[in-house]
TrEMBL record:
A single Gene Ontology CC term: spindle
Protein name (database record): MMS19 nucleotide excision repair protein
Chain segments annotated as coiled-coil in the UniProt record: none
PANTHER family to which the protein is assigned, alphabetical: CLASP, CLIP-ASSOCIATING PROTEIN
Biological processes, Gene Ontology terms: microtubule cytoskeleton organization; mitotic cell cycle
Amino acid sequence: KAHIEVTTEKLLECAKCSKYEIVHTAERALENLVTSLDPLRCFQSLLPYLEISDENADDWAVPLLALRTLCKLVERVPAQALLDSLPSSLGPCLVTGMRHKAVDIRKASVFVVVEMHFVVGDGLLSRLDGLTAANAKLISIYIERHPKSGKAAVADGEGGTTREPPVVVVQQNVS
């Protein structure tokens, strides 16, 4: 195995450790790895660890760390590589992750899909086989509120209503 694959594997194994400091440090190291090395190789090295199924429902620390890392990597991966991985591996993992019993896996899966939307475009949701209407709605809400969408809403506080961010006009005094 090459150094990226071995390093990814060893850092993901740290997710099984019970000490928060070790898991957190491994997560930061993975983030540094995927933001500085070849994005396609990093992407390919993460894919095997995204397997989320009903059989391993209680052993989700490694897939969670892989999902969180993928969330940081997605913007660097070419759209075509993401699309090519959807039918066979990535799509089923994300859809399964969105119905996982652990809320952290569900959230991380949604966040990855949201980040992918900004790389792949509007057709992404239709390519995720098995996505429920509720999941599609949730993802759409997160996409709409994401800073990259340019339509980020600001919470009004009580009642959960949202409004557009205020426009600040700066006037210059010309003497």
